[in-house]
Amino acid sequence: MKKALPLVLALLGSMSLQASIVPSLELVLPSVVNPGAFTYIYSAELSATETLDSSKPWTQFFVIMDFAGLVGTPRSSNAAFAPSVSNSGPYAIDIGAPAVNPTDDAAVPNLVFTYTGSGVVGGGAAVPLGTFEADSIYTSTVLDRYQGQAVKFAPLSPLENGTRAGNTGQVSVPTAFRSRQR
User: Fold this and answer.
1) Is the peptide bond before 6 cis (omega within 30 degrees of 0)?
2) How do the pLDDT tens digits run along the chain, 182 residues long?
């Protein structure tokens, strides 16, 4: 065990832990907007190592992939984010990292929240971005992918500062299939 510990620490130290916008499922409630459906309430946070910057030429967003049973349109508590739906993507691009799109079922809609605000948000501290909602006819959930794209905040690394930052992770989404309990 003592010999393995330095190797594990060296591997962890060499990993770049980057995230831009990270959504997480907070609550599922019966929908008030769409009777018979269920409202999925997500929160999202901008990483301390990223910003949202309206002066950049690329889109800054986060997308929750494969939101099954969507009813109506997604909603945002933050007026700086425009909600929309896409059957494919969008996909984040991180300058310096290989472009690998996540698995995305084109038959199931994606929830897209695009930054449309003005100025710069974040940089140096994590920023809660508000709540983001969508309704589904399903209550069963499964882990699926999300992606976020923002701007790197790295004032001590001038070559990276102000470039694109992308991330991919997992978040719970509604599914038509009941998940098995083990």
Assistant:
1) no
2) 444 433 333 333 333 345 789 999 999 999 999 999 999 999 999 999 999 999 999 999 999 999 999 999 999 999 999 999 999 888 888 765 556 667 889 999 999 999 999 999 999 999 999 999 999 999 999 999 999 999 999 999 999 999 999 999 999 999 987 654 43
* Closest-CA residue to 28 (of 182, 181, 171): 171
Q: Give me 13's structure tokens.
A: 């130290």
Q: Which pTM value belongs to this model?
A: 0.85
Q: Which DSSP symbol is given to 37?
A: S
Per the domain annotation, does 99 fall within a domain?
yes
Q: What's the CATH number where 22 sits?
A: 2.60.40
Number of folded domains in the chain? 1
Question: Does residue 155 sit within a domain?
Answer: yes
On whether residue 134 sits in a domain, the answer given is: yes
User: What residues make up the domain containing 127?
Assistant: 17-174
